[in-house]
Amino acid sequence: MNSESSDINTGEANASPVNAPYAVFDVLDFPVCVIGPDGSIAYRNRSFARIFELDDAVRLDATHPFAPEYRRRIALAYTRVLKGQDRKCFAVVSSGGASIPIELHLYPMFHERVVTAILVFIKVVEERLLSFDRSTAESPDGDRDGDASLYDYAPFPIVRMDEATGIVKYGPTFETLIGCAFEDFTRKKLSLPHFLSAFDYERIRKAVADITAGSVAFRRLNEIRFTVGDEVKWTNAVLYAQRAAGPGAVEMILEDYSERKRLEDKLSFMNRLQIVGDLSVGLLHSFNNIINIILSRTQLLLQLAEKESVLEGLRIIEKNANESVKQIRIIQSFIDRGEQFLGEEEENIIDAIEDSIEFAKILYKVQERKRKRSIRIERRYFCVLTVKTNGQLLREVFVSMLFSLYPYIMRGDEVQLVLKDDELPELSVSVAKSAAPAETLDAATEGLFLSELDIRRSADKLGIKIIEEESPAEYTIRAILPQQIIASRERARDDEGVDYKLRNLNVLVVEDEKELREVISEMFDHIGNRVAVFERAEDALAELREKEYAILVSDYDLPGMTGLELMAKAKEINESIVTALLTGWSLDNIGAYKNIVDIFLTKPFKLEVLIRSISRIMKSRKK
């Protein structure tokens, strides 16, 4: 404790939180002082001045009036009180050549929930043995077995138990572990079973019994779980006999590895996710083909059917199939690593935003069912932009932004999404923060890998600047797009008016899925072309060498030679042939093969998109 003489207040009023009017304490016949958070004395009453016989300063250094062996205890108590905890400690003060035993009672003083001062009551103890200090009657250094410093300064939690596992002593590190001071622990009559499961407590009880019986010298126990409120802490323990403390005394040293446990659990979780992701890729590939067959067959039947009731049913099937296609593509694009797709493509930014919203809704729907939440996404688009960039990474940034709101979302919350174009285009997403206390937030989000996506890692690759803003009422995250990725500020129009008719052409279809092969061939045949179909690339290549074809439509994943290899050889034979590569898998840097692949479509795809894409190329070549 230290003070400058100008800071000492003997009762005068002062408006600051620390130097408030304390004149009421002058009527007390025992010492009282108020200590500021910096350790200076802001106030002391007359009794305090008399016992310390000082007019200017009291310092916690070699000159302070407390006996040296108590400096440690006073410093520890002071530190705890600054954290908002009541504390008391025993000390001996030298005054007028005499040693006076005293009790220090320290209480935090708050201003707007912040500790701004410490109120100290001092009680002079006439008989040391009557003090609450348990170490008074022990050894001269303050502890019967001389281990006070071990308990006070041990970097690991340490606790002493009797042969019935009753706790008789512990230090500040164990106090931090269980969140309870020793005085509170004994006053509330707490015990180990309050913090341990029945299984873990029985393990400790048996270890103590074995050690006190002399059958073992020590015992190591792994994976002991302490539950403190809503928090779980994992420890390992070593128990051994402390014979210097008397018969039946057992000490337990704990290794708190909660953080390591959390990281190990997260790694295990990520490994499971990797397995699930690999399974999902294969499952999506199979589902792609199934949906593609349903969609293609439906589109073909729509051209042939005449009865309105049949047409209406087919339109419903087509609509739902298209929705499934959209969901599959969103999930598939997110599972794939964005950095694999190095090519830049032009696309409407609103389409990328909508895709990201649809993916976020998948998680939101799960939470609506499991957590009874209703989550709405309100969109406001004030501009229309066409961007030329890596579309996969762009979607990853947008999805990550939506997931970053997740910890703040409670029942009934609404997400606000705004796209505007001022000096630079900007997308912002925000959510009003719930008034519910923090502990009621969904604990499941802590381990949710999607909520921990590194937004900036993907954003930096695209030159996007991420800004997070948080206030007591709202959380907002903004993405400012760089000027160089803006291709135009008008929506890119679809290829409407493509009037080139694909008729009277030789078309070669190579697909190992029988149903899809039949649908594609029927479609080309229906619009008036000559179609040859093959299951294997080698057979198709032999056909290309014998006959000239205008169009080659091939799956990528074929037995033996891949569709990409087939197209490379087809271009060597006939460089004017139009090639369309279909695949349900993601391919690395497909843009590098633009001289070989004219059209690249991921499954499932619409037949009309395939026809329009081929028509556009054929029309451009006729100009």
Molecular structure report:
The protein is an alpha+beta fold and 623 residues long. The protein has 4 domains: 5-130, Beta-Lactamase; 148-256, Beta-Lactamase (2-Layer Sandwich), CATH 3.30.450.20; 337-493, Histidine kinase-like ATPase, C-terminal domain (Heat Shock Protein 90), CATH 3.30.565.10; 506-622, Rossmann fold (3-Layer(aba) Sandwich), CATH 3.40.50.2300. It is 36% helix and 24% strand. It has 15 helices and 23 strands. The strands form 5 sheets. The chain has a 5-stranded antiparallel beta sheet, covered by helices on one side. A hairpin with a 3-residue loop joins strand 16 (465-470) and strand 17. Helix 7 (258-304) runs parallel beside helix 12 (514-526), helix 8 packs across helix 9 and helix 9 (349-370) runs parallel beside helix 10 (391-404). It is elongated. The chain starts with 31 loop residues before the first strand and ends with a helix. Mean pLDDT is 77; it is low at 1-19, 134-147, 337-342, 436-453 and 491-496.
Write the SSE topology:
Blueprint lengths: L31 E4 L5 E4 L1 H7 L18 H12 L4 E9 L2 E14 L2 E11 L23 H6 L4 E4 L5 E4 L1 H7 L3 H6 L10 H16 L4 E11 L2 E11 L8 E7 L1 H47 L3 H28 L9 E4 H22 L5 E6 L4 E4 L1 H14 L9 E8 L3 E8 L22 H8 L2 E6 L3 E7 L5 E3 L17 E5 L3 H13 L3 E5 L2 H10 L4 E5 L7 H11 L4 E6 L15 E4 L4 H16 L1
Parallel strand pairs: 12-14, 19-20, 19-21, 21-22, 22-23
Antiparallel strand pairs: 1-2, 1-5, 3-4, 4-5, 6-7, 6-10, 8-9, 9-10, 11-13, 13-18, 14-15, 15-17, 16-17
Helix pairs in contact: 7-8, 7-12, 8-9, 9-10, 10-11, 13-14
